Amino acid sequence: MKLKIGTPLKSLLLFTASSILIFGCNNNQSNENKNASAADSAKASVVKINNSIFSVPSPIQTALLIKKSGVAFKKDILNPTDKAEHYTTSFAKAVNVGLYGADLGYTAIYDQKQVAFSYMKATKSLADELGISDAFNNDLLDRFNRNMGNKDSLLSLISVAYRTTNAYLKNNEQNDICGLIVAGGWIESLYLATEIYNLSSNEDIKTRIAEQKTSLKSVINILSPYNDKPEYAALVTSLRALETLYNDVSFNNTYVQATTDAAKKLTVINCKTEVTISPEQIKNISKEITIIRKQITQ
Amino acid sequence: MENKLKKILPLFIVLLTIGSFKSFAGGDTLTSLCAKHFQNQFISDGQQYQALLFNNSETAEFSTTLFSGTTYRFAACSGLTDGNLTFWVYDTKRNLLFTNKDFKNAPYWDFLINNTVDCIIEAKLDSKSTGSGRAIILIGFKQPE
């Protein structure tokens, strides 16, 4: 059969080309969340990565600081793993994948092997139900089991699983779920820090609580685009109440030139930062984060 | 004209299809390549910062908090070879703290943080780049021994 190239074929050619290009570009466009707002176009083509203004530090970093404080492991402050089966909505599952991730990091750092494994299983079950089990698969559970007793390997496995999930969700236009996981981890991390501070009055933990001011803004920014959904709106409202408490936490930053060792590929950042937070502010922040944490775990 | 179109049609469709699949697969491949710069000593912060830059005058930007007493590693990648992404690290008053531009667009760099600092990270495709590209920045950290 001879293929006749005429107007219909030209149309097909154009359609094929357009379809593939639009499909491919749409994927990229959404992945990168290119901000096409008028405000941004005025800023000489600056692309805001992931549509958020700030990134949110890993909950593992605060857990490491908690361990350094010398306070013994406290299982009772964690969110019990048997609650996982009661989380029925995507919202509750996603936010608790993040929350359990922070608990998982805390238990791994304290070398609580069996407890850590139960948190890994709880996280995996929620991830499965959300359809994001690529990273939290059986292979991860096996490797987690095999590396029990090697804290660094466990932390590496956990963080890579979360990064893989983060990338997968962004690449599949599930930024709302992605944001909830990040938010859940951050909320639990701050909750654990305030609980441990209430027990120890450790100065480093107090400072770390104060230093969450910027990250809180990030979490709010990440969730705000989904405010049309009641559960998101309720959480953002609670986080804004927390933000009000942070308003008077003050920072005094002084620029000092950084020093670079090219051979070691290392730059030492020497800027000075002084943070001021009062006992009353800590008390109020602790109270508010407990309320928020209860809101997402009940 | 029709004969020419007839000849190039299959090739055109094949190229577009390959290009389309390549764009889907590119992110994962690039992340894997970028993550190799972490080796075993750095723990990922659990996130991936990515943007599609359409040309070398576009800038990707995000902010983060770097905590005191921590050594961070930034890995910056675009394309399948090192050195295609230039990045700058500023404090919140836009004082320049570092740029890998001074070091041939080094694909990774470490930062020892003496005091907690909020900073702004900007990234651009290398000035010699002629097309668009996906930019990925990964952040890892390690605690002092």
Describe this structure in words.
The complex is a heterodimer of chains A (298) and B (145). By secondary structure, chain A is mainly alpha-helical. Chain A is 63% helix and 7% strand. Chain A has helices spanning 7-32, 38-41, 59-68, 90-109, 113-130, 138-146, 151-171, 175-200, 203-210, 213-223, 230-246, 279-297, and strands spanning 46-48, 250-254, 259-261, 266-269, 272-276. In chain A, the strands form two sheets. In chain A, strands 2-5 form a two-stranded antiparallel ribbon. Chain A is globular and about 50 Å long. In chain A, 42% of the residues are buried. The model of chain A is unreliable at 1-43 (pLDDT under 50). With 145 residues, chain B is an alpha+beta fold. Chain B has a single domain, classed as Jelly Rolls, CATH 2.60.120.380. In chain B, the strands form two sheets. In chain B, strands 1, 2, 4, 7 and 9 form a five-stranded antiparallel β-sheet that branches. A four-stranded antiparallel β-sheet of chain B has the order 3-8-5-6, with no helix packed on it. Strand 1 (46-48) of chain A pairs parallel with strand 3 of chain B, so a sheet runs across the interface.
What's the topology here?
The complex is a heterodimer of chains A (298) and B (145).
Chain A: H1 7-32, H2 38-41, E1 46-48, H3 59-68, H4 90-109, H5 113-130, H6 138-146, H7 151-171, H8 175-200, H9 203-210, H10 213-223, H11 230-246, E2 250-254, E3 259-261, E4 266-269, E5 272-276, H12 279-297
Antiparallel strand pairs in A: 2-5, 3-4
Chain B: H1 2-35, E1 43-44, E2 49-53, E3 59-66, E4 70-77, E5 85-91, E6 96-99, E7 108-113, E8 117-125, E9 133-142
Antiparallel strand pairs in B: 1-9, 2-9, 3-8, 4-7, 4-9, 5-6, 5-8
